[in-house]
Structures are given as C-alpha cells and as structure tokens.
Amino acid sequence: MRSLTDLDPDVYDSIDDIETPAVLVDLDVMERNMRDYASFADEQGIGLRSHVKTHKIPDLAHLQNEMTGGDGILCQTLSEVEVMAQNGIDDIYLSYMVVEESKLDRLIRVSEKLDEFTTTVDTPGNIHPLQEAAARRDAVVDVILEFDLGLNRVGAPTVEDAVEMAALIEELPNLNFAGVMAYEAHVALSAESKEDFERLCAEAMDQTAEWIDRIETETGVSVDEVKVGGTSTSKFSGKHDVVTEINPGMYPFNDVGELNRRDFEIGKEDCAVTVLTTAISSPVEERTVVDAGSKSISMDIDGLDPVPKHRDDISYENASEEHGYVDTSEGTLDAGERVEFITPHVCTTINLHDTLVGHRDGVVEEVWEVQARGKVK
Ligand SMILES: Cc1ncc(COP(=O)(O)O)c(C=O)c1O
Predict the structure, then answer these.
(1) Could you tell me which of 99, 143, 174, 272 has the fewest CB atoms within 10 Å of its CB?
(2) How far, in Å, CA of 129 to CA of 132, rounded?
(3) 230 Cα–ligand 1 center, Å
C-alpha cells in the first residue's frame, strides 16, 4: 500500500486519475522540441549543451546529452553540478562564479571526478580565489570568461576589461583559458519580432567576434570555445560563424514567457509542460478557484499569468498561495473539473515540485524526481 508521504502517480496511470496540482510533461512535445534544437545545432555544425537548471533532473540531462551526441550539460549552481556528477553525467560547464573558499574546494573536488569540467569567471575577485583553490589541490581548471553584451548582470562589461581578464587568466598557472561565454539574453527583452531577433542577435554575435579578435591579437590567447544563447536566441545567434556552442535551457518545454517572446514561431501546442489543476470552488458565476496558486505555479515574472493550454474561454487572473483565481465570465468551470495551465516561467515552477510527470497521450510514462531541487549552494 502507498505510504502517506508518497503522493506520486504510478506509471500507466491515466492523467485523469492523478492528484493535483501536478506538473505534467507531454513527452511527444518535449521530444519534438529537443529534436528541433538538436537538428538545428547539427545543421550549423555547432554543439548544443543543454542548461539543466530548467529541470534539475539527471535522467532528463542524460536524455538531452544523448540527443545531442554527448555535447554535455550546463549547471547554474555547484550543488546542481554535484547532483549531476553523482548521477553519471561526465561533461559539465558551470555557468556561474564561485568565490567562497569551502565552495571552491568542492568545485575542484567535483571537477576531478568529471571527464570535462569548465567554470566561469569575469573579474579578479573571482579569478584569484579560483586560482588559489586549484593550486591548493595542484589542479588545473578550465575557465570560461563571461562577456556582458548588455544584460547588465555579470560578465566583463567592456572589451578592455575582457582583454585584461584574458591576459590575467593566461598568466595564472592553475587556470586554463578555454574560451568565452556571451549570454545575449538582453536581446529577448527588447525584440518584438523575428526580424528584431535576427538583427539583434547578429549584432550581439558581431560584438562577440570583435571582442574575441581583440583578445586574440592583444594577448596571443586562443579563444577556442564560444558559448552563447538561451531558448529564444540560440537559433538566431547560432547561425553566426563565431559560435561554437549554444546553451538553451527551456527549449524542451517552453512556457508563457517563450510564447510571448516568440509568438511568430511557437504556439500553445509547443508547450510541453503544464500544471494540472482541479477546480475546488465556483462561488460566483464569474469566478472559479483552482487548487494551484503561487506555491504550485511560479509567478516570478511581472505581468505573466498562467495560460490554459486547451481552453480560450477562461483565464487565470490572480493567485494567493494555494488558490488560483480563474475568470469564468466567458466560460464555465465547475468544482471537480480539471484544467492544464502553461506556466509563466517553467524553470521556477518545476523548482516548486518534487516530481515531474511525463505522459504520452494522457498515460503516465515517467515519474521523475526533481533531484537537484533546493540545490542552490
Ligand atoms: C548563462 C545562461 N546560459 C543559458 C541560459 C538558458 O537560457 P533559457 O533558460 O532562456 O533557455 C541561462 C538561463 O538563465 C543562463 O543564465
């Protein structure tokens, strides 16, 4: 008999019978999206390294790695790296800076277990501590220098800074300069059409090429790896000659953010992940409440609400923690009825749940534990 703490569905259950709220993955759609990006990368002759911060599930990381012919994965936290390494992934790029001494010791130790490991730096404040940690264990660490092309987050902010950092990395004995990462997500914040994406990504990649040229001519360092791209920009930036690898994360799943950004090429049918909810009360004609509020569907992006996947006559209006307010002035939704919502932001929604339920044609095929959930250190 099932224990009281085991609320997961079983393989072969119908999704009509599983308890809600539950995060569902339509496996046909997910696999189609994965194949789409993998064949794009193949056609361009570049790598596709998948960002697994989106789902934090080693089995899915393996699947993505297989679909790309072993291009490896990216993680955003060191403890994600540790979970992936413990589960047999052997090629990991950490797209994040680590500076604390104890964490750096963990970083060097995990890197020693992997076939390939690369980490990220951008300023002396994270370059020197990494050099010291590597020296403590007599290791040599492959590093990627991050450029800031306009996101204004991290990364060398000017070409002069980038040249200076490349020269510094080159002269440190325990660091190996492996290349650069130019995450051009600022493009997605301003692009409003396919033409905008094409132009702004091309400009960002031209800038990347110029900075690389300056690094190579002024320091003599060779820039072998050029990592770029999220889900919305990868297929534009990846056409530029300078790129060796794209790094999208959300591409297997999509979400409302992606739908809004790229309505010219994707629709609801391309969104693989939904949160399945049940209506629990319909107190007045124009309002029904479902069992998924902000603790089940992340609402971390201003102005983005969940979107019903299969209905256009109702809309998700507002949330408290366990209650989702649905506007039913145009359609009906009675207590007990179920609705699947596409999530505003898929990465932060998956991070709220213990499991992800993969189904094909409504029959449960996979129940994945979100193993690196909470692994933020
Ligand atoms: C450095 C870096 N690369 C790639 C990605 C993947 O982008 P997306 O989630 O839009 O696919 C992220 C996501 O935040 C990122 O921070």
Answers:
(1) 99
(2) 5
(3) 5
